[in-house]
Every structure is written in structure tokens, then in C-alpha cells.
Amino acid sequence: MSREQVVSERYNGLVAAEPTLPSAAYWDPAEYQKDLEAIWYRNWILVCREADLASPLAFRTFAIGDQQVVVLRDDHGALRAFHNTCRHRGSQLCRETEGRLKARLLTCPYHAWSYDLRGNLVRVPSKVLPEGFDKSDYPLYPVALSTWRGFVFVNLAEAPAGSALPSFDPQSADLLNWPLEDLVTGHVLTKVVECNWKVFWENFNECLHCPGVHKHLSALVPIYGRGFMARHDDPEWELHADNDEPQYSGGLRNGAETWSSDGQAMKHRFPGLTAAERAAGQNYAMNLPSMFIVGHVDYVRTVRLVPLGPERTELTAEWLFLPEALSDAEAEIDNIVSFGTTVLEEDAAICEVNQKGLRARPHRQGVLMPEEYDLHRFHEWVRDAHKRAGPPHQG
Q1: What does the alpha-carbon distance between residue 67 and residue 85 come to, in Å, rounded to a whole number?
Q2: Other C-beta atoms within 10 Å of 70: how many?
Q3: Architecture per CATH, 18-41+168-389
Q4: Residue 5 pLDDT more than 60?
Q5: Quick one: pLDDT at residue 6?
Q6: Where in the numbering of this chain does the Rieske domain appear (predicted)?
């Protein structure tokens, strides 16, 4: 699902009309709950960057569906994650979304059960404990945590295999030449989009909409203006196989260097990129279902999705820069941020238009066009996740 990576050495397009997911998959509450159980509660989900929890006792709370998680850095510097639930009677432990704990304890605001930062129950205020009661039997419920290149992921599965790294799309860029761990946040955009989370991913995975929706982006990335993501999306690609002009090969328009309002990059650029990575203009890495990262020559943009309901999704985008870029008094990031914001706002608006039409009673299912091969791959991923999940969890 990379915009510039060639999927194969032949035509990428679908050769048969493939059905979309059923329309109810995008608005029915029961289908939404199935998505939560089969996908969001079983995969690695991006929470934040390690820099957001830089000091001991720093914490963040995070909701995935109806599950609340607290992620913290303990007093020894280790990152830990727990369900945000007291073992006494299930009260919420942390009510704030982020901050720094006032003590080396997590104390329930209801009845003051207290836990150390490794999750062990250490104090119960009751004057008398029941016979046989052992505090070691009541630790916080742990949540699996994994870090990747300075990003923090959690997984709600009881015993998830591996780490966040293998869950990245193998057809994505690896971004090994970008110093992700050292980058600093320059801007954050948070927006609630009135659409199902899958609608946003579908929009991400095709560029048929680009000529009509993204005027400025299509001018910056000429192949997008043709409705294609890569050279081999064109059924007549062989006619232009030796033509390296960007409208056929991909990459930015001639003279442009990065995604910005004028196509110009900041003077502080990533020194370790290959010529191919610089020429591509945009290099995508994706980790379904919650995030993708785009590497440019001078900054990195991350986008995180969180489902808020059957027809609501929260989108959080961050623009990450080299520290010296943000400390440079002459650096202007508005040229970059305004362009990316425009693209995301355009995507959000058209996703909401898509969502509004899905409830038509006779519309049971859509159909994919040849250029939407990555949508088909995404749909197969969703279908496979539901098959592997089996019957919904009860409780």
C-alpha cells in the first residue's frame, strides 16, 4: 500500500470486478462491535511517541472502543501499560488524559486501593481484610506494550504474539534511513471525522479520487492527477515504461522537493536518505488498523486513527522534524503544515460524503474498479481478521 513502490512487474489492476464489504459493515452497530472484537482488540494500536512519556511517572490514558488503557513510565524508567481499571470494583483509575503522577502509586479515586507502577496492589484502606485475602492476587490487568522506532503500541489480546514490528505492511517502505527516534513534534492536528474507520482507510488506498478531490496534491504529484498511485497502475504502462517524467514514474513534479505549499523543502533535511528515497518525494509505512507514517526529505508525518463509533473516527496527525529545524529561527513550518492539513481536510470531507450515502436501503454492496487493487487487499485483510476471530466475545 505504498504510493511509490511497484507492487509487481506487471499491471497492478484488478482483472475482475470485486465486491466491496457489505454496506452495513460501515454503519451497523453490531458490525462495528465485530470490528472491535476481531481487529481493534487483537492488533497493535499506536498510542503515542516515547517522547510523550519521557520522564518517570508520566502517563497517558487511551481508549480503544470501550476499553480504557493507561500507559506510563515507571519509577525505573520502564514503559508499562494496564487496563485503566481498579481490581476492587472496577472503577476507573486515571481520570486525566495525560500528566505526571504525584506519587509512585496509582491510587483509585473511589476507595483508594493503591498500586505500584509495576501494577502490584500495595495498599488497601479497609480496616480488616477478608480471611485469605492476598494482595498479590489482585494486580492491575496488564496490557501488552511494544515500542518501534520511538513509537508506543499496545495490544489488548490476552497473549499477543511478537511485537509491533511484524505487523507493519510488508509492502510499505521501511523508513530505516529516517531518524524517527530523534524527531521532535512541530505540529499536531486532531479531528473527528464523521465516517467509519474503514472508509478512511479505503480512501487512503486509492487515488481515483485524487484528480477531483486533491487539486493541489495532484499538481504536486502528477501521477496522482492521473488517478494512479504507481507506474504499474496504468493498464498502458508499457507504452511509457522508459519515460521517467513524474506523471508516468511517480514522484514529485519537476523542481519540487517535498510536500509543501510551494514544493520547497526546509534547509534541514535528512542526510541519510538514498537517491531513490529523495526522488520518490513520499515514502509510506503502514500498520493496520491504527496508523501510517510518511517520510519526506525534511520531515515525517504520522496519522493515527481511533474508532469512536460506527460512523465516527478520530484522526490525529503529527508533523515531526529534526530538532535543529525547529530551533532554527528562520525555519517556517507553516509552508509544510498548511499543505498537509489541506490534504487531510479534503480527505476527511470526502470520506464524510462517502459515509452519508452508504445507508441507502437498496445499496447492499459496492464494486471495485481495477485501480482499487489495494482496497481489495484491505478488504481481504478485514475479512480474514473476522474469520480468525470467530464468534464475538461475550461480556
Answers
A1: 10
A2: 21
A3: Alpha-Beta Complex (3.90)
A4: no
A5: 43
A6: 45-154
Residues in the chain: 395
Phi, psi of 391 (to 5 degrees): -60, 145
Q: Which residue has the cell 496509582?
A: 106
Q: Write the single-letter amino acid at 321.
A: F
Coil, strand or helix at 162: coil
Residues contacting residue 201 through CB under 8 Å, at least 6 positions apart? 288, 289, 305, 378
| CATH T-level topology, domain 45-155 | Rieske Iron-sulfur Protein (2.102.10)
Give how far the C-alpha of residue 65 lies from the chain's centroid of Cα atoms, to the nearest Å: 15
Specify the domain boundaries for CATH 3.90.380.10 within the chain: 18-41+168-389
Half-sphere exposure of 223 (CA within 13 A, CB side): 25
φ, ψ (nearest 5 deg) of residue 292: -140, 155
Q: In this predicted structure, what is the pLDDT of residue 330? A: 82
- pLDDT in the model for residue 36: 98
Closest-CA residue to 77 (of 96, 104, 113, 114) = 104
Give me 105's grid cell. 502509586
**pTM of the complete model:** 0.94
Instruction: Assign 390 a pLDDT band (cuts: 50, 70, 90).
Output: confident
Quote the DSSP letter at residue 36: I
Name 62's Cβ contacts closer than 8 Å, sequence gap at least 6: 47, 48, 68, 69, 70, 71, 154
Q: Tell me: the pLDDT tens digits for 23-32?
A: 999 999 999 9
Q: Using a CB cutoff of 8 Å and minimum separation of 24, what contacts does 127-136 make?
A: none
Cell of 255: 523542481
Is the omega angle on the peptide bond into residue 289 within 30 degrees of 0, that is, cis? yes
What is the C-alpha to C-alpha distance for residues 208 and 10, in angstroms, rounded to an integer? 19
Dihedral sign of CA atoms 104, 108, 112, 114 in order: negative
Counting DSSP H helices and E strands in the chain, the numbers are 10, 17
Alpha carbon of residue 328 to chain centroid:
29
Q: Report the distance separating Cα 234 and Cα 227, nearest Å.
A: 9
Instruction: State the residue for C-alpha cell 486525566.
Output: 96
Looking at residue 394, its pLDDT comes to 52
